[in-house]
Design brief:
Keywords: Repeat, TPR repeat. This is Tetratricopeptide repeat protein. This protein is mainly alpha-helical. It has a domain of 131 residues: Serine Threonine Protein Phosphatase 5, Tetratricopeptide repeat. Helices cover 65% and strands 0% of the residues. α8 packs antiparallel against α9 and α9 packs parallel to α12.
Length: 239
């Protein structure tokens, strides 16, 4: 296995320090390699080394100023640095470059939710759903925002649609067979303690929370279903 493949394997396993030890010399040898910078930037973000991560994403933008993935990832780091106006501007730019990708809208919706623009978040989730009617994550997240605004019936409809899309049936079966269980995930491993959610502050910035939405491979249905399960565990059972 080559060094880069080993580094990616460490990254996927949550062994971020080990992954960084591999990517640092690779980037030193080839500082304009976009793939190396992208992976190292994400690793640095996971480790909470946000200024260093931003430097890598700044270099990526210099290499390709019109790559929506690079721009979106840079927005993640800006958000984690509490530079939310800049982050939103970057997500706007990413969306303008890739307007048919529902992930761009759901990413911006998530940031709007985090920064208090709840109606703007709903509008973006609805656009994401228009582009991808089978996106359970967007339905689920829209339901969460609708619940915050007191739209109980609308939120229930969104949650029910999300449950249906992932195959979860909350009602008891009339037959003697056991009801189908909601899909579960093993907890994410090796998340640095400084990046764990602050339960006392629902708006606290946590890479563990945000990376699940923004930092994954775009358009990956399995990833979206995985994030749905994560949300279920984070927000608890819905009424």
């Amino acid at each position: 296995m080559s060094d880069i493949n080993q580094g990616i394997a460490y990254y996927k396993e949550g062994k971020f320090e080990e992954a960084l030890d591999i990517f640092n010399p690779l980037v030193s040898e080839d500082p304009k390699n976009a793939m190396l910078l992208l992976h190292r930037g994400r690793i640095l973000s996971r480790l909470g080394k946000l200024d260093q991560a931003l430097a890598d994403f700044d270099n990526l933008i210099q290499i390709d100023a019109f790559n929506p993935d690079f721009i979106s990832d840079r927005a993640v780091v800006l958000h984690l640095l509490q530079r939310n106006e800049e982050a939103l501007s970057e997500l706007d730019r990413s969306l303008n470059l890739d307007p048919k990708n529902p992930y761009r809208y759901s990413s911006r919706a998530f940031l709007k939710d985090r920064t208090g623009d709840l109606k703007g978040a709903i509008a973006d989730y609805e656009k994401a759903i228009e582009l991808d009617p089978e996106d359970a994550v967007s339905y689920n997240n829209k339901g969460i925002v609708e619940e915050k605004l007191g739209y109980k019936q609308r939120s229930k409809q969104s949650f029910d649609k999300a449950d249906k899309l992932v195959g979860y049936q909350p009602k008891e079966y009339k037959s003697t067979s056991a009801p189908k269980e909601k899909p579960q995930l093993e907890p994410e491993k090796n998340i640095p303690s400084q990046l764990e959610p602050d339960q006392s502050d629902p708006k606290s910035v946590s890479f563990k929370d945000y990376w699940k939405t923004v930092g994954k491979v775009l358009g990956d249905k399995d990833t979206r279903a995985e994030f749905f399960s994560f949300l279920q565990s984070k927000f608890g059972k819905r009424k």
